[in-house]
Amino acid sequence: MFNTEFLDIPALDSANGTVSLPGSKSISNRVLLLAALSQGTTTIHDLLDSDDTRVMLAGLQQLGCRITPSNVAPGQPLQITGIDGFLPNNARGQLFLGNAGTAMRPLTAALAVLGGDFEMTGVPRMYERPIGDLVDALRQLGCAIDYLKDEGFPPLKIGQPDFSQLGDAPIQVRGDVSSQFLTSLLMALPLLATDRDITIEVVGELISKPYIHITLELLARFGIAVKNDNWQRFVIPAGSRYQSPGSIHVEADASSASYFIALGAITADATEQNSIKILGVGKDSIQGDIRFIEAAQAMGAQVESGPNWLQVSRGVWPLKAIDLDCNHIPDAAMTLGVMALYANGTTTLRNIASWRVKETDRIAAMAIELRKLGATVEEGADYIRITPPASKQAWKAASIHTYDDHRVAMCFSLAAFNPAKLPVRIEDPKCVAKTFPDYFEALFSLCETERERIPVICIDGPTASGKGTIAAEVAKALGYQLLDSGALYRITGLAASRAGLALDESSEETIAEMALEMPVRFDAQQRVWLGDEDISLAIRSEEAGMNASRVSALPAVRSALVDLQLAFQHLPGLVADGRDMGTVIFPHAPLKVYLWASAQCRAERRYKQLISKGISANISTLLADLEARDARDMNRATAPLKPAEDSLQLDSSQMTIEEVVAQVLSWWQERQLFGRA
Ligand SMILES: Nc1ncnc2c1ncn2[C@@H]1O[C@H](COP(=O)(O)OP(=O)(O)OP(=O)(O)O)[C@@H](O)[C@H]1O
Ligand SMILES: Nc1ccn([C@H]2C[C@H](O)[C@@H](COP(=O)(O)O)O2)c(=O)n1
């Protein structure tokens, strides 16, 4: 996951390949609650691991469900032993449900029916998301629910219900604000339907019927056969009791599929037809958002489908503008808003009033952000109308505010395919964790762009100037890859000296051949592997540094390592540290920093570094070694250490690490187009 302040996506050209999607959020949280209420143990496969499922799992654990493992583990099923319709005696506590509507609403209904003493809390945005219609419906039954802050909104206090007045009259609930209210009642009221039918009557037009369809399908899997009377009345039969189905698979998220369906529809290059294969969900999915396919097809996408996969490619181009009632695909429809940027006219998305009460006011958010890109946007209470930028020149490089809304972040990433070839900045990219923590990694694994567009920040300088430290911090702040080129020379020096080779011209060709074939690997923790040996520590000694300096003076060794270094240039960008990053390996890098500090200062830093690791050291020896290394690195014939002509020089002798990082990031920021008029 990109845990950065923002993520800059370079302009993208094409995409191709296969993506496996995470499980559906709607199905995951429903299955978790139903399993928790059931008799027996349910084994759940392919459960989504996200913010929303995590708060649900934590809540269910607080209610006394046995859950193993306690959190979703990749590739491992999760088992829940349910409470069989009864809470433990004196059940009480505070449930923090973040911004997860799929946890707050159904859990409120279930706990209000089960009784106990609970406070239902969340993040500030949750306190702006209405719940009054659900509370009103539950109060009709005799449930005890109080508002702890504003009337009609969480946080809530739930107490013991009194069902003594419960008659046969239908329970009424509004259907036109959020279908989650009806879903919540449908999942909670089987707990009350032990000896009588319970009827729920929808008041007003029922929105988002596909989500109710998911609820009904899953209830059936857990033994509850609800009678659906034309989406207006739902009868839960007497004698209902939740029963675990034993094992259940969660479909991949059809709303998440929308970004990759759109990607397939907009990606192509002039010469070859690209396509995106999506695994985990097919046309026969129970999720309503699968009908996004029809909308994408109407805009020109070509879609093929099998039982558990989709394959999407570009059909017509530009895409066709559409005028669509999106009531049946409220979440995925946001993706159409960004596809509209590539259409041949004005696209209107109608009947989307529910967008206003989602993670953010999505109509307002989409309008503001689409305008930043150069689109003309009209918004109404329940519609949005989007006209793409009038020409290539009318596109703007935008910094997209994401409003803590995962779908805003994901759909706007597709604006990186703009014809003006401008980058797009996504603010707070980690908000995708709500449903798809690795969304950007999945996107980048499919996308291609010209090498020159993948930005490289070069940080060159003498030993112990702080290059490695600063490069790692800058890469972390930007979510970029990291190339520690010195490590490659250190590994070569280590391998050559272990092979008993002289580290000079006499072994040049042999060392170069070795360098070409070294099984080197850097893992996610920045550990360095040579085959299956972790050599992270071995290459960090002063001797290894000196050996690296020796082999690095050999031209054949330098050329042997070029391709390995270039291969680090991945999306979304790279920070490379070394001696010749800016002068030789990445001569077109948009930012080159030459970082230095006085020899005395560097020797002192190295001294402290070694002592802190428990390695004994002597400042004057370190100073002499470092000056010898400087001399060799600066005076060799090939790629000597020197500032690139277009580099910015930074003397860090009197600066802290934080100040240096801030300076480099500020230079980087100055080079960005975002937000410029
Ligand atoms: N501006 C700074 N102020 C104080 N200490 C620093 C500063 N920059 C780096 N250091 C410290 O100096 C030591 C050496 O830094 P670092 O290993 O990043 O240097 P380097 O240039 O990558 O060295 P080498 O080329 O030998 O790999 C580290 O302990 C680091 O924390
Ligand atoms: N781009 C590079 C990186 C490193 N070297 C050589 C010269 C250094 O003394 C040695 C070790 O590098 P360090 O890990 O200290 O950065 O490797 C080079 O020639 N070119």
UniProtKB/TrEMBL annotation:
Residues recorded as binding 3-phosphoshikimate, renumbered to this chain, are: K25, S26, R30, S178, S179, Q180, S208, D331, K358
Identify the GO cellular component terms for this protein: cytoplasm
Query: Catalytic site residues?
Result: D331 (proton acceptor)
Q: GO biological process: what's one of them?
A: aromatic amino acid family biosynthetic process
Q: Which domain of life is it from?
A: Bacteria
Enolpyruvate transferase domain location: 15-443
- Indicate the principal place this protein occupies in or around the cell: cytoplasm
Pathway listed: Metabolic intermediate biosynthesis; chorismate biosynthesis; chorismate from D-erythrose 4-phosphate and phosphoenolpyruvate: step 6/7
Q: Would the keyword Kinase be found if you checked this record's keyword annotation?
A: yes
Which part of the chain is the Cytidylate kinase domain?
457-667
Q: Which reaction does it catalyse?
A: dCMP + ATP = dCDP + ADP; 3-phosphoshikimate + phosphoenolpyruvate = 5-O-(1-carboxyvinyl)-3-phosphoshikimate + phosphate; CMP + ATP = CDP + ADP
Q: Does the keyword Transferase apply?
A: yes
**Residues the record lists as binding ATP:** G461, P462, T463, A464, S465, G466, K467, G468, T469
Any one GO MF term held by the record is:
3-phosphoshikimate 1-carboxyvinyltransferase activity
Subcellular location, in the record's words?
Answer: Cytoplasm
InterPro entries registered for this protein in UniProt = Cytidylate_kin, Cytidylate_kinase_dom, Enolpyruvate_Tfrase_dom, Enolpyruvate_Tfrase_sf, EPSP_synthase, EPSP_synthase_CS, P-loop_NTPase, RNA3'P_cycl/enolpyr_Trfase_a/b
UniProt KW keywords: Amino-acid biosynthesis, Aromatic amino acid biosynthesis, ATP-binding, Cytoplasm, Kinase, Nucleotide-binding, Transferase
Residues that coordinate or bind phosphoenolpyruvate: K25, G101, R129, Q180, R362, R407, K434
Its annotated function is as follows: Catalyzes the transfer of the enolpyruvyl moiety of phosphoenolpyruvate (PEP) to the 5-hydroxyl of shikimate-3-phosphate (S3P) to produce enolpyruvyl shikimate-3-phosphate and inorganic phosphate.
NCBIfam families (UniProt xref): aroA (TIGR01356), cmk (TIGR00017), PRK11860.1 (NF008816)
Q: Subunit structure, briefly? A: Monomer.
Mind telling me which PANTHER family this protein's record contains?
AROM/DEHYDROQUINATE SYNTHASE (PTHR21090), PENTAFUNCTIONAL AROM POLYPEPTIDE (PTHR21090:SF5)
Q: Which HAMAP family does the UniProt record give?
A: Cytidyl_kinase_type1, EPSP_synth
Q: Which family does it belong to?
A: Belongs to the cytidylate kinase family. Type 1 subfamily.
* Protein name, entry field: Multifunctional fusion protein
Organism, by scientific name, is: Comamonas suwonensis
